[in-house]
Amino acid sequence: MSVRQVLRAATVVASLAFVAPASAQTLRYANQGVLNSLDPYTLNESTTHAHLGHVYEGLIARDQDLKIVPGLAESWETPEPTRWRFHLRKGVKFHDGTPFTADDVVFSADRIRKPGSNLQTRIAADVKVVKVDDHTVDFILTSPNPILNSQWDTWYIVSKKWAEANNVVDPTPAAATTPSYASLHENGTGPFMIESHQPGVKTVFKANPNWWRKPEHNLKEIIFTPISSDATRVAALLSGEVDVIEPVPLQDIARVDSSPNAQVLKGPEIRTIFLGMDQIRDELLYSNIKGKNPFKDVRVREAFYRAIDVEAIKSRVMRGLSTPSALMIAPQLYKLHGEFKRAKYDPDAAKKLLADAGYADGFEVTMDCPNDRYVNDAAICQAVVGMLARIGVKVNLLAQPKAQYFAKVLNTGGYQTSFYLLGWTPGTSDAHNVLYEIMGCRNDPKSSRGQANLGGYCNKTLDEVAAKVLVETDTAKRDQLIKQGFEIEQKDFGYIPLHQQALAWGVSKKVKLRQRADNQVLLYWASKQD
Amino acid sequence: MLAFTLRRAFQAIGVMFAVGIIAFSMFRFAGDPVSQIVSIDTPPAERAAVRKSLGLDDPVVVQFARYFGNAVQFKFGMSYQFRQPVANLLMERMPATLELATVATIISMVFGILMGVYTALKRDTWLAKLFQMVSLIGISLPTFLIGILLIYLFAVTLGWLPSFGRGEVVKIGWWSTGLLTVSGLKAIIMPAITLGLFQMTLIMRLVRAEMLEVLRTDYIRFARARGLTTRAIHFGHALKNTLVPVITVAGLQFGTVIAFSIITETVFQWPGMGLMFVQAIQNVDIPIMAAYLLTVSLIFVTINLVVDILYTVVDPRLRSTVSRPH
Lengths: 530, 326
Hints:
The complex is a heterodimer.
Chain A: H1 3-19, E1 25-31, H2 46-52, E2 60-62, E3 68-70, E4 73-80, E5 83-88, H3 102-112, E6 128-133, E7 136-140, H4 160-165, H5 181-184, E8 192-198, E9 202-207, E10 219-226, H6 230-238, E11 244-246, H7 253-258, E12 262-277, H8 298-307, H9 310-317, E13 322-324, H10 347-356, E14 364-370, H11 377-389, E15 394-400, H12 402-409, E16 419-424, H13 431-438, H14 460-471, H15 475-492, E17 495-508, E18 511-512, E19 527-528
Parallel strand pairs in A: 1-10, 1-11, 14-15
Antiparallel strand pairs in A: 2-3, 4-5, 5-7, 6-7, 8-9, 9-10, 11-17, 12-16, 12-17, 13-17, 18-19
Helix pairs in contact in A: 8-10, 14-15
Chain B: H1 2-27, H2 33-37, H3 44-53, H4 60-72, H5 86-121, H6 126-140, H7 143-157, E1 170-172, E2 175-177, H8 182-215, H9 218-226, H10 230-268, H11 273-282, H12 286-314, H13 316-323
Antiparallel strand pairs in B: 1-2
Helix pairs in contact in B: 1-12, 5-6, 5-8, 5-10, 6-8, 7-8, 7-10, 8-10, 10-11, 10-12, 11-12, 12-13
């Protein structure tokens, strides 16, 4: 061995020693919301999915750019358009030591579709799940579905044996009458195990030493505390008592950034904030125009669209932290997003359009708005009120807490709204969800189409396009079909998209963490220095 | 005496019943629990199933009967958001609230009395004037603002005290206490001061006024004439007579302290009943809201009952007028 080789070897050894993880760390994390039930099928909500994503895993996973990557399934293929075959990873163990097999996948597929599960739509009811061997599972569909697995990163696999032993074969329903074992205990395959869980107070996660993947974090434990008060949460970060907080309120971003020990991670979120108008009733519920519905006239909708200055909302209301959007879907979720442009802000043209439609003097309408759901939601609505006043429309703003707001405007409340603000993240991370749930006609009571289409916007051509999108397996063709769908809606001015709000996480300077655009705080990618 | 106690007990039950009715009628305006339980893209059929399983489809009268029938047996049902029995959750959270309220009351009593005595005896010193000013602040500033100011001063700027939570707790049977660990004691200081500040100023002003009143009475003058030491006069005679109304007020205020702890607990993320109540309102968790309101009114009613009974024990004149006809 030459001297040079020795030196090189020594350097390699030295550098290895240098990059070896420092002593395992404790990371403290505070979120404004609480973690309630640990049963992964109780609540379909992204913060809960993020928490439970530390202990449970799905067949697929999504990486830091939201790309689908193998999870508990090593690989998969579609031998026929209606049959998907998943090859499961070998040697994976649940936290209690039971090996993970095809039985657990079949069991979880049944469990997630049982009454009481809030995630029943993860797998359609007519999908047959068949065990081929211990590490192969087939999903047999009645019609092709190119996005079958797109939401399976949060279809967490539950151990069959554990569920049977602890009497939690059925998911913990919303209206449980007895406490469920699964709501206080977990048994996943993920990088962390829950050591203690006091709902609404504190949850302690311990690193799983037997995780099948090589950890990218250097943590030995995560202590999660909900802190609902904005000021206290920020104070806890600034004083170093917690290492990561979500969210940082917009007004505190500058202060956190100027502090010596923390900073704000900012980025666009994939939730789209938009305005909707009741176009289905013959007379608006809350307006001074009687006998007809002004929103049925496309000119009125265009006038509203053109009267709203999204750039002003961005700079004045959102303090620069929003991305104005031409589409009802975020750019991260749709490749051809860039080909769309917003109709220009033009209050004069808007006024003329209103006059052409027969409302030269404007009219009155009530706007429904949540005030504790989205970033600065009520302030956005106030800005909208001001902008519409400029074209002569008098908007009476009804801003309420989300509990009252959703009770009024959603399907179950009878869609009692004439004009509203809503935010939407397609659960499937795919455009079809938007075309179907938000833009689909509400005319078929048997289907779930258009159930989040609170204003009842309807264009039958769009529905036909959406149906084609669902079964098209060729990606390029599919993207073109989606484009067609969005173009139809844009021409109709069915909705007024505003922006994607920004994510703001407060992170201690000791912590390295990457932000994912779906606002899931995933600390198994975090590393912390001493 | 027995008749008096019974009558008061019946009144207390009446109050509880009224609180129950008011609380129940309020819940109908709290929003839709179902939209808080399920996610926004949950299909209507599934929502309807949840609604049915919660019994929200039944007629109002049936719902009220069920709610009340369970409440009198201290069965508050299952929390919508936690999927745990509400009674357990309350028991788990109650020690935190009671400890906070007790420490706050003790702090407010000790400092309130000391400052009250001082301001009464040395009216014109600059320290007395400072105390008066502090008391003005305590009365006029809202609790949450004081809490946030304290957090920024002692947690963020100075880094002496934790900004949230209860620190480490020790379990003694079902009771969890934070008073036995250093971090627990550090954690309780700011919330207790925030919560007790209003009471403290109240007690200080009360003691000061009473003290000034007592110092003018004849027996104090006679005591002075007899040549007793100033110390004996002030603390042996004057202060003792001042304390009767102070203790009454502090006792009655204890219920208020518990009820007011909602705000303090929210600011400091103190894991007590008040914080749970606020979370329950946001999530329209009716079983928790109902149980909390009834528990707090039970505490109020009990304290009042005890004070009423104590009065008659302390003051025989009261007893004879209410229990025995002349």
